[in-house]
Structure formats: structure tokens, C-alpha cells
Amino acid sequence: MRFDRFRSWGTGFGCERSGRSGGATSSASIRLSATRPPNRSGRRSAHGGCNLRSGATLEQLAREINPVVRGWINYYGRFYSSALDFSLNRINDYMVRWLVQKYKRFRRKRAKARGALGSHARLYPGLFAHWRLIKP
């Protein structure tokens, strides 16, 4: 089994070859995968400093974040959507932080803020693009 990597547009990709070689029959399979999900600066561009915008509504944040996140899902999701899990969970963490800073009733109650975000996700499942893959 051999694992080759190459980089394209600042993103690494991996190609795994497995199979038997030699003899009368040989088989090989190739599996492409995104080896690097969006890095810290990419996540920073996606959440857009939502923790600094306490005057914005959740719908306004969704309008700003969704185009970037949809691009990630289309690009990285082609290979393995599991490579996105960490970055999409981080966006949910940023939204919880935003809720805590926006509403006084969630101060020092992050679990309650995450629950409120989860109930909002159940009421409006299409509000954020990443909620169809990762639930808060």
C-alpha cells in the first residue's frame, strides 16, 4: 500500500493505492481524499468575526457565512465530508460564542447557548449551509 500526496491551489490531496501486484491477476484501487481541511485563516474568513458582531442577527450571519461554507462543502466534500467535520464544528463553536456575547442570559452558560442553537437548527434547518452535515 502506497500513499502519494500532491498539492493544488494550496490544498493537499492524497491518493491511496492498494492491491496485489504480480502473478496473473492484479488489482488496484485509487481513493482520492482531501488531506487538509480549511486552515485557521480559512475558518476565520468563514465565521467572519461573528463574535464581534453582537448587533447582527443570526440570519445576517447566515447570509455572510453561507457562500464560503457552501464552497467548502462543494470542494472538500467531493472526496470526504469527514475532512470538514472539524472546521464545521468550529463554526458552530463560533456561533455559540456569538450567542453568549449577544445575550446576557447565556453568560457563563455555554451548554444552554448550544442547546438554544440546536433548537434553532431544528426549527430552521436550512438557515446555515453546514447544518445539513453537522448539527449543533
Describe this structure as you would to a colleague.
The chain is α+β, with helices and mostly antiparallel strands. It has two domains: 2-34, no CATH class; 40-132, no CATH class. The chain is 43% helix and 15% strand. It contains four helices and three strands, in the order βββαααα. It has helices at residues 40-47, 58-76, 85-102, 110-123, and strands spanning 2-8, 11-18, 29-34. The chain has a three-stranded antiparallel sheet with strand order 1-2-3, with no helix packed on it. A hairpin with a 2-residue loop joins β1 and β2 (11-18). α3 crosses α4 (110-123). The protein starts with a strand and ends in a 13-residue tail after the last helix.
Question: Which helices and strands, and how do they pair?
Answer:
Blueprint: E1 2-8, E2 11-18, E3 29-34, H1 40-47, H2 58-76, H3 85-102, H4 110-123
Antiparallel strand pairs: 1-2, 2-3
Helix pairs in contact: 3-4
The gist of it:
With 136 residues, this protein is of the alpha+beta class. It has four helices and three strands, in the order E-E-E-H-H-H-H.
Which terms would index this structure?
43% helix, 2 domains, 136 residues, alpha+beta
Strand content: 15-25%
Annotation field: number of helices: 4
Major sheet: size, sense and barrel closure? Answer: 3 strands, antiparallel
Secondary-structure element string: EEEHHHH
Overall average residue pLDDT? 75
Strand order in space, largest sheet:
1-2-3
Number of strands: 3
User: What best-fitting shape do the alpha-carbon axes yield?
Assistant: globular
For the record, the count of structural domains works out to 2
- Name the structural class: alpha+beta
> In angstroms, what separates the terminal alpha carbons?
37 Å
Helix content: 40-55%
Query: Unreliable segments (pLDDT under 50, ≥5 consecutive)?
Result: none
